[in-house]
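INTERNAL AUDIT FORM
Audit reference: QA-55
Scope: verify that the stored structure record matches its stored sequence.
Auditor: D.O.
Record contents follow.
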Amino acid sequence: MDSRFDEGMRVRTEVLGAEHVARAQAAQTPFDADFQRFITEYAWGALWARPHLDRRTRSLVTIAILAALGREELALHFRASRNLGVDPAEVAEVLLHVAVYAGVPAANHAFAVGRRELGFSEGAAPGGTAPGGTAPGGAASGGGASGGVEPGTAPGGTTGPPRRDQR
């Protein structure tokens, strides 16, 4: 039987993608190594590995919580939702719930992050091109599909809160 850490690495990789997990491991330092092990074992190996909710549902619940709390990991979990087959329309429904139960400002911010991370830009369908030839996400996408942060890191792998232009 796999250890909780091994199970956590397997689930984390399936949800977030091998590239993201490799970047997170490469960015690990002696300062945060125990924390990284903790989230791998408990968030991914214990919680996300539980059988009673499927990963799509866990993804939507996670998006709702992160949106309601305004957490920086929201962009990462929008991208991860695509790995799990979550339809952007389902994400939008969850964000409408956030608007009612957690507040319109929280949902407004989450919709802005979602537009960028799920490939919507003004006037474009997901994966399409916006008027004027701008690709989804545009130059201001803040990391694109390969970006994302783990708890405690800002975009670009630095510690501390993200810069205002990276939120």
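Auditor finding: record pair retrieved intact. Residues 127-167 have pLDDT under 50 and may be disordered.
Action required: none
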